Amino acid sequence: MEYAMNQEWKFKLHSVYGQLLFDRKLTQSFEQVKANNGAGGIDGETIESYDAKLHENIMMLLEKLKSKTYQAQPVRRVYIPKKDGKKRPLGIPTIEDRIVQQSVVNVLQPKFEDNLFHNWSVGYRPNRGVQRALQIILWNIEQGYNHIYDCDIKGFFDNIPHKNLIKVLKKYVSDRTVLGLIEQWLKAGFMEEGKLIHSDYGTPQGGVISPLLANVYLNELDWEWDLNGIRFVRYADDFLLFAKSKEEIEKAASLTKRKLQEMGLEVSKEKTKVVNFRKDDFDFLGFTFHHWETGKDKKPEFRVTPKKESIKDFRMKIKDKTRKTLTLSKEEWVNRVNPIIRGKVNYYVTIIKAIKANEELGQKSHCITRWMRNIFLNIDGYIRKRLRVAFIHKHPNQKKEQKMRYKWSNSFFVGIKLIPSYWLYLNKAYGYTLEDYVREMKIKGKLKQQNAVKRAKEKGEEYFTPHRLRKMQNAWNA
């Protein structure tokens, strides 16, 4: 079944609801919901309590769906802090609602993947994601599409008009019962401080079906760009448009604003800008793309690093896990920080994967990532410093931490299985081994000391003063 872009389908999906009515499918949906963890909804039911009587609960839910007595519950509204200090509302549906939503996603998503969604829409889609987004960005930059419209939709998830969304869905789905379910979820409203609030706009962030509905709605925009020959990358409600000239990008920007207005949405003025990558930088998905420059060998190059806020977030997460108030063993401290290091580095290494994937497709890269190494060396220094203070059980402070640097050195931390982010990044990117890392750090340490000795000599001072030697000895004896 081939369809013309986002035109109404000739053969709409008509028997969707019937595909939900199997206990094994509902159980499979519960397992997916469980894998995503998450808190319970307004009825107080948690994943654990639902799981404890799983068969009984699934059979009751199946009966409700068969007799069409299932009723969506309002979502529980909570607020989570954003990196800019503001708060983002999350709507948490009940476990039962999440299971039914997941079941609908399981039926609709594969059909939309095959016949509807655009290749350059990469957020919340199977086998796509951040790496794919980075590949598209790098490819466009390398191909000379250096005028970029960096756009953000104003409060997207809160502002999708329900009427318009259902209208778009009706182009592809004719199963009235499923459309009715989706409408129920949209209209269920949310509970906040004991009050039930309804709205004709928005899909709750936190709802299992929200990302799919968002992609279906913004798919209208994707094909509008496609129709006009505009290059883009879209990750949920964040997107970039690419053009070769200022005029073209301005044309693309006004077309976008017009189409969004038609869809009942608007551009966030403070978060949207036109970038000339020959002289301006831009951020996307936690990375900063630093504009073109002339390299040492007179060849053009541009750099990519993690965004400053992302590194700040990395440090904050480490800080939260290394509070001085706890008394733990060294192994326990290391186990607290290792998952954070692993998670962050795995994310940052996607840029290397994207560069390599594009090179395999024949796109020569001018993207330099070496600045990342210093970022990781600094982070590692910060992590070791935090851990040294945490290791000192009696009155920990910065002065004592400095004393212990000789004993609790780089090699010591490798020995107790702390993951150095510098090593993990280079290991994932280029197969750099732990032995390579220890060797490099020893060389760096020696050089640092030699330079310090040299500087002291130039000033006519002694580097290995009795005081310094005593400090080193004390650290070893501690």
Uncertain stretches of 5 or more adjacent residues: none
What form results from the Cα inertia axes? globular
How many strands, which pairing sense, and closed or not: the largest β-sheet?
Answer: 4 strands, mixed
Cα radius of gyration in angstroms: 27 Å
Topology readout:
Layout lengths: L22 H13 L11 H6 L1 H13 L8 E7 L5 E6 L2 H21 L14 H13 L4 E6 L3 H4 L2 H8 L6 H12 L2 E3 L2 E3 L12 H18 L3 E5 L2 E6 L2 H17 L10 E4 L5 E3 L2 E8 L5 E7 L1 H14 L8 H19 L1 H11 L6 E2 L2 H21 L6 H6 L6 H6 L5 H10 L3 H25 L7 H12 L1
Parallel strand pairs: 1-4, 11-12
Antiparallel strand pairs: 1-2, 3-7, 3-8, 4-5, 6-7, 9-10, 10-11
Question: What are the main properties of this structure?
Answer:
globular; 478 residues; 4-stranded antiparallel sheet
Describe this structure in words.
With 478 residues, this protein is α+β, with helices and mostly antiparallel strands. Helix content is 52%, strand content 13%. The strands form three sheets. Strands 2-1-4-5 form a four-stranded mixed β-sheet, with no helix packed on it. Strands 6-7-3-8 form a four-stranded antiparallel β-sheet, sandwiched between helices. α14 packs antiparallel against α17. It is globular and about 85 Å long.
